[in-house]
Amino acid sequence: MAKKKLPLLENVPITGWAAKGKSIAKVDGMVVFVTGAVPGDHADLQVTRMKKSFAEARLQRLVTPSPNRETPFCKHFGTCGGCTWQDLAYPTQLEFKRQEVVDNLVRLGGLDLPGVQPILASPKSRFYRNKLEYTFSDQRWFTSEELAGGERITDRKALGYHLPGRFDKVIDISECWLQPEPSNSIRNFIRRYSAEHDLGHYHIRKHEGWLRTLTIRTATTGEIMVLLAFGHEDREKREALMAAVAKEFPAITSLLWCINPKKNDTIWDLDIHVFQGRDHIIEELPDAGFPALRFQIDPKSFFQTNPEQTLAMYELVRQLADLRGDELVYDLYCGAGSISLFLARHCARVVGAEIVPEAVADAHRNAALNSIGNVAFEAGDLKDLLDASFIARHGKPDVLVTDPPRAGMHEAVVARIREMAPPRIVYVSCNPATQARDLALLKDLYRITHVQPVDMFPHTSHVENVVCLERS
To answer: pLDDT of 334-392, one tens digit each?
Structure first.
C-alpha cells in the first residue's frame, strides 16, 4: 500500500515555543510542533507526522522572518543538536525561558507565586562551558550539502558529536562555540594527526576500533585536562599520539588516557592513567570576604559546566538562605559539595547528603583542600538515608537546600522534608516541571517567597530555577 503523502502547510504563523527547542503553530485548531522555525516567523511547513490531536512538521520555506530571528553563528547549526536556539535573539530566549518556569509552576504545580524575577542571564553566551565530550567514529554523518554536491566522499571518519536521536551517527565538528580555547585547537589537532597517521576510529555498531572518545575540561584558573579513551591498547601508537598532543599543547595540566573495552562510553569503572602532568585540575569560586574556594576536579568528578553562572547562582542560594552564622543547613543531593562549601563559612554547620559515594569522597576532599571543618557528608539513597537516625546524628535543619537531578525528588524525600519542617527551603532545579510537582506536595506547609529563573545554557531550551520557601 502506498504511503499517504503528508501535506504542506503554507504561510503558517509560528506562535510560541515547545519543549526540546521546537516551536508551536496552530492550524485549524490543531497544534503543530515545528522544527527549524522561531516564534514570529511565517513559514511553509512540511508535515512529517500526523496524529489525531497534533502534528509534527519542519520548516520548508521561510515566508516572513520573525523580528527576533538572528543569523546562527556556528557553521554546524541545524545539523548538530547542541545549540538549537542560535537563530533566536538572546533576550527573546530569556523571555521564553522565564515564561516556561511560570507555566510549569502555575499550570503543573498549581502554585501561588510572588512576582517572578527576570531571568538571570549568563555572563557569557558563547564559550561558557568547562567540559565537552567528543566521539570518534569511522562512519560519520554526511550533511545534505555534501550529498548534494555529487563528489565522491573518501573521508568517512569523524571526531565530534552524536547526531540527535542517533547513537551510531557522529557529526564531524570543525568548530564549536561552547568551550574556550584551546578546546577547538586540541580537537582539530587530534583529528589531523589521526588522518595523517591513518589511526583507526571506533565503529559504534560493531564495537570495534581504536580511538573512542575525547574529553576536554578547562577551568577559570587556566588549567586544562585532556582525556583520550581507546577501545584497546596499542602502546606504540598511543604513546606517539599522546606525546604529539603534549608537545603541541605544553599548557595542558593533566594529560590522561584509559582503555575502554565496554559497550558504553562511561568511564566511572575504568582505570585512568596519567601520561603527563597531574591527575586533576583545580577550579576556583570566589567567596566574598574569604579566600577563593578551590575544587579538585578529576576525570570522574562532577562540577557545574558554566562556572561563571554557577557563581551567580550560588550567591543567589546563599542570599535566599539568609544565613546569620548560627544555622544548621542540610544540603540534599550535594554532589561534590560545592554548594555545601559555599555556605559553610557563613553558618554554623552544613550536612550534605548524596547518593553517589564517589561524589561524597570528592566532597570530603574539597572540604580538606579548603580547610573547612564545619561540614559533614553522608552517602546513600536519600529516600532511605534521611531517616530518624540521620536527624538524631545531625539535628533538625534551620535551612534546607536541595538541588536534585532532572527527575526531581523522590516522594519519600519530600515526605521526610515535611516531617523535618525546616523554617526555610531553597530549591535549585534543572527541570521546572519536576520542581513544580515537588513544590505542590509542600504548598500546604510553605509559601513561596522568591522565584528566580537562571540561564545556565544559552542558545538551548534548558532553564534552571531557584525557589525560596518559608514555613507558613
So the answer is: 999 999 999 999 999 999 999 999 999 999 999 999 999 999 999 999 999 999 999 99
Measure CA of the first residue to CA of the last residue in the chain; give whole Å.
Answer: 64
Classify residue 29 as left (phi > 0), alpha (psi -120 to 50) or beta.
Answer: left
- Hey, CA dihedral for 376, 377, 380, 381, is it positive or negative? positive
> Considering only CA atoms, which of 203, 182, 303, 301 is closest in space to residue 246?
182
d(CA 277, CA 244): 15
- pTM of the entire structure? 0.92
Dihedral sign of CA atoms 292, 332, 425, 453 in order: positive
User: Per residue in 388-444, pLDDT tens?
Assistant: 999 999 999 999 999 999 999 999 999 999 999 999 999 999 999 999 999 999 999
430 is catalytic: yes
| Cβ–Cβ < 8 Å for 408, 438 | yes
How far apart CA 469 and CA 442 sit, in angstroms, is 9
Which residue out of 80, 347, 430, 468 is catalytically annotated? 430
pLDDT higher than threshold 70 for residue 149: no
Residues contacting residue 176 through CB under 8 Å, at least 6 positions apart: 74, 76, 82, 132, 183, 184, 187
Strands 54-64 and 30-35: parallel
Task: Sort strands 349-354 and 224-230 into parallel, antiparallel or unpaired.
Answer: unpaired
Q: Which residue has the cell 606504540?
A: 236
Question: Quick check: 145 pLDDT over 80?
Answer: no
For 297-356, where are the alpha helices, taking DSSP H only? 307-321, 338-344
Place of cell 599520539: 241
DSSP-assigned beta bridge partners for residue 392: none
